[in-house]
Amino acid sequence: MTLVKFNNNKGANALLPGFNDVFESIFNDTFFNERMVTRVPAVNISETTDHFHVDLAAPGLKKQDFKISLDRNVLNITVENQSETSEENKRYAKREFSYSSFVRSFTLPDQADHSRIDARYEDGILKVDIAKKEEAKMASRQIELK
């Protein structure tokens, strides 16, 4: 089966042929596609016997761009980044700057120790380590057969 774009020329659009085509060409432009897409960074979540690890890929940012908060049992990672270039003594015909933001939220498991969360940003990766409660560490052990 082939999917075909549906173009209904009835109604108001019949009076203004090509009206939709103008807007489609504007919003299908690569300028809008690249800037209107919300980009959420990829994340890896892993677990060891002592910690939970969250690694979030966010290259090109500075550590000041990150805000990490804990609200009850939810870890929130928020980023706001605005970059603008400015050169004095120049007249601009066009000047571009960029703004990006995102929020990633993670519900922590019951075994997480909320008082022992560490974060660092290095080589474009935000690394958040969440320690496990002592009782959670002791919950798993090997049982020897007799």
From TrEMBL:
Belongs to the small heat shock protein (HSP20) family. Signal peptide: none annotated. This is HSP20 family protein. Residues 34-146 form the SHSP domain. PROSITE patterns: SHSP.
